[in-house]
Amino acid sequence: MLHQFFGDAFDGILLHDFLTAYESLSVGDRQYCLVHLLRELEKVDQHNTSAAWQAFAKTLRRLIHDGIRLRKRPDFTPQRYQSRILRLGRRLDAFIATAADDADARRLLKRLRRTGDHLFTFLDYPAIPFENNHAERMIRPAVILRKNSQSNRSARGARTQAVLMSVYRTLHLRGHDPLRTVADALRTYLQTGQLPPLPGPAIAGE
Fold this sequence. Notes:
- The chain is mainly alpha-helical.
- The protein is built from 8 helices and 2 strands.
- The chain has helices at residues 2-6, 34-45, 51-71, 78-96, 103-115, 133-148, 155-173, 178-192; strands at residues 9-16, 26-32.
- 12% of the residues are buried.
């Protein structure tokens, strides 16, 4: 499904959680969601109170928060900013290279060795956030609709809702009236037997 959406390659920056399916995509660059990583630390905290885990989690949290704080330092010169990024990268590399006796720490270290090169990508791209909350907010209306309608009842219903909500949200974000645009498209289909393509961004004043 991901390959159907993105094609063979995506030359942009893909911002996503730690689902391994995303790693099969060829992308220009990627940023893993740091909020998801922080939430996982909190989740483990609920059942693992060992000193080894607490030390591991404290160090990782400090690294993450230092990276987030660095992004918020517009007073730094470009040279100082890049120097701090390099220093942060060295700290992360040293942390990832450590051994761990705690099972939860070993599991996360294994993940970080695979994903560590893309934890602080956002520091190199001002327009890229360190979390994918925007994407989750975009799909929230579809989740609420599914909940209120007592689920989709069938695989076909789920696919239909996914397509319709994707079209609706795309039209909305591009500045079009979704209901009017869909109605016009259906009218065109009845007249010609073909659906028109999704319109591009609306031009102000039109």
